[in-house]
């Protein structure tokens, strides 16, 4: 993940980053959401308090992550989505937000 981040920044703005990586050791697409109690400086430039991560299988065999990244990027164009994501206080609320969006 760190090597991938060094290739291209994954800063999306609004305090949100979306690091993603594919590796042969990963057997299926996984997503994680980290809401930080205190913002951190990501990639020496952006104050970040939400990390949306995607882990996917070998890039030579699977592009399953691409539609998910596109969907997430579209959601993050909506101010109401960002506000709701940042104010969500439980993992259940975050899961429901993504599921219903």
Automatic annotation (TrEMBL):
Keywords, alphabetical: Sugar transport, Transport
The keyword Transport is annotated on this UniProt entry: yes
InterPro entries listed in its UniProt record: PTrfase/Anion_transptr (IPR016152), PTS_EIIA_type-2_dom (IPR002178), PTS_SugarTrans_NitroReg (IPR051541)
GO MF: protein kinase activator activity
Signal sequence region: none
Keyword Repressor: no
Transmembrane segments: none
Domain PTS EIIA type-2 residue range list: 1-101
Protein name: PTS sugar transporter subunit IIA
Biological source species: Companilactobacillus farciminis
């Amino acid at each position: 993940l760190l090597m991938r981040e060094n290739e291209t920044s994954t800063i999306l703005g609004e305090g949100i980053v979306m690091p993603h990586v594919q590796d042969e050791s990963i057997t299926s697409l996984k997503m994680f959401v980290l809401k930080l109690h205190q913002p951190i400086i990501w990639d020496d430039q952006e104050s970040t308090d939400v990390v949306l991560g995607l882990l996917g299988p070998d890039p030579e065999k699977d592009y399953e992550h691409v539609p998910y990244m596109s969907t997430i990027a579209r959601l993050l164009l909506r101010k109401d989505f960002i506000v709701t994501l940042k104010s969500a206080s439980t993992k259940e609320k975050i899961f429901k937000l993504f599921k219903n969006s």
